Amino acid sequence: MKILVTGATGKVGSRLSKRLAKRGAQVRALVRDLSKAAELRDAGVELAKGDLLEVATLEAAVRGVDAIVHCAAFFRGATPEQAHAVNDTGTQHLAAAARAANVKRFVFTSTGLVYGGTHGKHANEEHPCTPSAAYPVSKLAAERFLLAQEGLDVRVLRLPFVYGDGDPHIAEAIGFMREFPPDLRMSLGHHADIAQAVERVLDASSPTHRIYNVVDDEAPDLRTVFASVGAPPPDGSKAEVAKAFDTLMDGRRIREDLGFKAIYPRLADAVAANVA
Fold first, then answer.
1. Of 147, 192, 201, 231, which is least packed with CB atoms within 10 Å of its CB?
2. For the chain, which ranges sit under pLDDT 50?
3. Catalytic residue of the set 135, 163, 212, 264
């Protein structure tokens, strides 16, 4: 299988590209800056220079691929306009190129934040989506656009907070979440398990569903998440702000349908294996 991965120099895309290549897939990475992709080239990944907002660069990038795994996104620091441009409009550009090239499968990595706050309850894929922040609003718009396309086999993976493999994501998020309640629970997913979910969706000839939550077995509280990187617990002074991120995900569908089983079911397992 020949796979195009977008966002291949980002946190999820870079690790996923290397895992897919190591597994034996022919991987092509869409990158805006070739100078930042030396590690991908060294891992046997083909590089294609392009940008989701520059339509003319996408035709060559999608040519000859069997599947696209679309990880590129603008998250922290994006204005609502920037989030919409990259995450929604950019996805529409890529989907148009994929349809024109007769790409067989289009895997879109979305976010569990599309559910909005779930108030301590686990949301399955049929749960109403009521996001408020610009990032999940733009991702939900992209989901809906993709799922309405005819002639494009779209599968959506809604991801939790992703960590592991030397990714400083938890440490980087401490500042943002420092004033959240310490007992707020967070759905997590290790990079190895995100890659496993992508592989299972790519390998299945006809997955039963079009949307899958991907999540570890345990959702630790922020006190535990902060402690995993040696940080004191958050102080809870902005509990109202935190409600928009109080999102727990139910991962039973991908387990039952595609046989997904978390390699690192709990944050504690990844910490014990020194891969957190």
1. 147
2. none
3. 135
Q: What are the start-end ranges of the E strands in the chain?
A: 2-6, 26-31, 46-49, 67-70, 105-111, 122-123, 153-159, 161-163, 188-190, 211-213, 248-249
Tokens at 171, concatenated = 């440490």
**3 has which bridge partners?**
27, 67
For 159-191, the pLDDT digits (tens) are 999 999 999 999 999 999 999 999 999 999 999
Q: Which domains does the chain have, with CATH numbers?
A: 2-163+189-217+250-265 (3.40.50.720)
Active site residue 135: yes
**Integer distance in angstroms from the first to the last C-alpha of the chain?**
30
Q: Which of 123, 125, 189 is nearest to 155 (CA)?
A: 125
C-alpha span between 121 and 69 (Å, rounded)? 29
Give me the pLDDT at residue 76, please: 82
| Whether the predicted model's global pTM rises above the 0.70 cut | yes
Task: Give the Å distances, CA to CA, from 20 to 13, 54, 109.
Answer: 10, 26, 15
State the helix-helix crossing angle for 90-100 and 134-147, rounded to 10 degrees: 20
